[in-house]
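Each letter names a residue; C-alpha cells follow underneath. Both lines appear below:
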Amino acid sequence: MKILFVHQNFPGQYKHLAAALADDDQNEVVAIGEKGNIGRLRHPKVKEIGYEKPRGANPDTHHYVRGMESAVRRGQAVTRVGLDLLRKGFVPDIICCHPGWGEGLFLGDLWPKSKRLYFIEFFHRAHGFDSGFDPEFPQEFDDIFKIRARTATMLLSLEAATWGLVPTRWQLSSIPDEYQSKMSTIHDGIDTDLVRPDPDATLTFQSGASLSKSDEVITFVNRNLEPYRGYHIFMRALPEILRRRPNAQVLIVGGDEVSYGRAPADGKSHKEFYLDEVRDQLDMSRVRFLGRIPYDQFVKLLQVSSVHVYLTYPFVLSWSMLEAMSAGCLVVGSRTPPVQEVISHGHNGLLVDFFKPDEIVDAVERVLEHPDKMQKIRDQARKTVVSRYDLKTRCLPKHIQLVKTLAIGKRPRVKAA
C-alpha cells in the first residue's frame, strides 16, 4: 500500500500513525510538509519532502478572504511537490491530510483515483461554539462575516475528501450535517504507558529546587497562555487560591504567542496582560511560569500535580487534559461541552463554571483539603483515558483499520469512537 501524508507541521497528529504504517514492509510511506518542520519524525522508512513556506495573502486583499488566498498559495506549494512525485510514478492508494491550511485543496485533482482521508479538527461557526462565547470579547458583525468567509477553505476540503476523521463527538458536532455521514470519530490517542501515575516522580528546576507528590502543586497548561483556554479566568482565581493555600506551588506551562483569537490591543502578550492585572496580589515566589518545556518534563509535571486546572471555550479539546487524566491528576475542568464529553462531575474530575473564578478556587481548595478522599476520582480519570483514548490498544488500531478500509475502496463504519 502506498500512503501519502500531508501536514504543514508534519508529523503533527500523524506521528504514531505514519510510523506504524511505515513499520509494515508492505507499505511505502511518503510525507509532505513545510520545509522548516520536516525531519522531526526521524523514521527510516518514511520519506519526508519539504515545500517552501508560501508567502501570505496580499495586504490589499479583502480581510475576509486573506485566509482563503493564503490557503490557495499553500495548496499550490503542495501541488508542486505532488507533481514531482507524480512524474516519478508515485500514485498513493490513500492520502492522509490535515486540510486546515489549504494543503488538501488540489490533491483530488492531482490524484483523482487516490482515496483521501482528511483530518477535520473543527469547523468554525459564528454562533453556538467558540465565537461569541466570552462576553469579555464581544462579537461584532465584522467578526461574523469573516468567519462565514473563512469556512470556504474547509468546505472545499470537505467536498474534496473521500472520508473525514474527527477526534471527538463534540468536534464532530461542528461539522455541517450534510458531511457528517462520511466522518469517523477517532481520537489521536494517548500513550497511557508513558503518561501514567508515578508516586516517586520529582520535578527539578534549573535552580536546583524540586517538587514531588508530597508537595501541594497546582498545574495549568496551555500551548499558549490565552483566553481561549481560560488563562485570564485562572489568573483571576489565583490570588485567592494562594491566600487559602499558603503552602501551594503553582506551575504554569505555555508560550507567549496567540494560537486563537486576537492579541491584546496594547501589544503585550496575553500572559503579561493578565499577570499584570493581579501581579500585586500574588506571592510570585510560589508561581512559576515555565514557558514551553520538553515532553519528559511535562509528564513529570503532571505526575507531581496535586490538582490540574483545565479551562476551554467550546472548541477543540486539548491533548493536555487527557494526558493529565492519564497521569492520575485530579482535573478541575470547565463546564463546557468539549470537557463534559470526557469528565463527569464527581466521577472522574470536577467541573466548574468557566466564568466564575470563585468556583475554581473552591474546587481547588476542596481537592487540596481532602486529597485522600479524591483518590477514587483520580483512579477513574485514568480508567477513562485507558478505556476510551489509549493509543496502542484503541485509537491507533482504529486509525490503521480506517486507512486500510478506505485504501481498498470500502466504505468505513460512520461511528468509530
Remarks:
- The mean pLDDT is 95.
